[in-house]
Amino acid sequence: MTLRLYNTMSRRVEEVKQPDDMLKMYVCGITPYDHSHVGHAMSYIIFDVLRRFLEYRGFKVKHVQNYTDIDDRIIARAAERGITYDELAAIYIEEYEDEMRELNVLPADVYPRATQEIPQIIEMVQGLIEKGRAYAVESGDVYFDVRGDPGYGKLSGRDVDSMRAGARVEPGEEKHDPADFALWKAAKPGEPSWESPWGPGRPGWHIECSAMSYRYLGATLDMHGGGQDLIFPHHENEIAQAEGFTGVKPFVRHWLHNGWLTLDEEKMSKSLGNIITIREALERYGSDGIRIFVMTAHYRAPLAYSEEAMEAGKRAAERLQLAASVPGGEGPAADIPGDEYRERFGASMDDDLNTAGALASLFDLARNINRARDEGRAVDEAQATLRELAGVLGLTLRERETAQGADAFIELLVELRNDLRHEKQFALSDKVRDRLLDLGITLEDVQSGTRWRRRD
Asked: b vs e for 107-121, b when ≥16 Cβ sit within 10 Å of the residue's Cβ?
């Protein structure tokens, strides 16, 4: 089986070839000026699943993900709160990393921060100027010369002339052309800044990723990912900068972009204020519930947030958790061929990361596990297969803490019921059983004692 993924650059599904040594993957990270939301979770879950599946298929992956820890929004929000820009960024980076751990997202190998990469950024800007691909102006700003790049627009499919027509020059800007974009911004009064050959200032947004990917992964990346909103201008500008600086093409072999998460038919966005934070979602639906919600849609398709869809993800997670955790009977082993499910799962994932198809194979496996267990068969081997494949999707199949906290109380009620039965107080013991049933807890009296499980 061969993994095939859609390439935004070529606009077709292409085979992913294993490099001789390491598959180099760069994913654009957050700008830490506010709480991260479910739209961020969606993107990082998708790229986490991709990385996990690549490793499952035997690829060695080096994963780099940046933090844009200086920009206008960070500066403005820090001023509002009366703290420094780096204190604000540190707060939201720590919060984000805590939430990624709870979402079971594997950490990147490197998390470079723009403010810690200033020498490399200045080196790239200077190199672009020397190659005639950028120019400095009197104010201390530095711009990329879009007119000097005949390939500009190849990722987004945009025509440079139409971009110029739609662009405008802001007051104080000294661009040669409206489509040119900033590589270095001269410092404004009171803003944080760094010394450079063009005077004090700070990096533009786009140059950060080009400089960081080049430092940690080299001139050509195997994969570069992010949301569809980054195709233009961010990723288009990254290509222009990186290829202009190194002279090496392509900058990226395989471009991957995930669809938007929408709320009330608009993209979920901090700037629009229509967000559900990751923390809120974790508390209400749990990690596995969120991941299943994300994976029921294709990664390139838009995904509509709703409480009903999130609740469905939570219930689906509970069904898989139940199938994976409740012991089977003492009869012969169930005839559930694990390799057949692995093949179905792998075929779906190889087909442009079809996570919905992969999930369908897990639910079929869970259904057969439950059926075999009800027949008194041993299901340990099938449960191991379920946990293995679920792990490739980043599912923990652990019960949420709230559920775990209730377990001790359920055990106590089961023990009480057994004591009542031993004392022949059958009316009271049946009342305990019926009340548990009302709460979704089924009791099974077997030779070794009483088992309980949550109903599907």
From this structure: ebeebbbbbebbebb
Residue 126: phi and psi, rounded to 5, are -60, -40
**DSSP H helices in 143-247:** 160-166, 205-217, 236-246
What residues make up the domain containing 314? Answer: 297-392
User: Can you tell me whether residue 396 is helix, strand or coil?
Assistant: coil
End-of-domain residue from the set 392, 415, 440: 392
Query: Which of 250-259, 381-390, 421-430 comes out lowest in average pLDDT?
Result: 421-430
385 and 426 within one domain: no
CB neighbourhood size of 329 (10 A)? 18
CA distances from 62 to 99, 201, 357, 359 (A): 22, 32, 27, 26
Contact call for residues 334 and 378 (beta carbons, < 8 A): yes
In terms of C-beta density within 10 A (0-12 exposed, 13-18 middle, 19 or more buried), how is residue 395 classed? buried
Q: How far apart are CA 188 and CA 175, in angstroms?
A: 18
- How much is the pTM? 0.86
pLDDT at 219 over 80: yes
Place of tokens 């206008």: 72
Q: Is residue 325 part of a domain?
A: yes
Q: Give the Cα separation of 395 and 319 in Å (integer).
A: 12
Tell whether 310 and 382 lie within a shared domain: yes
Domain boundary among 351, 366, 392: 392
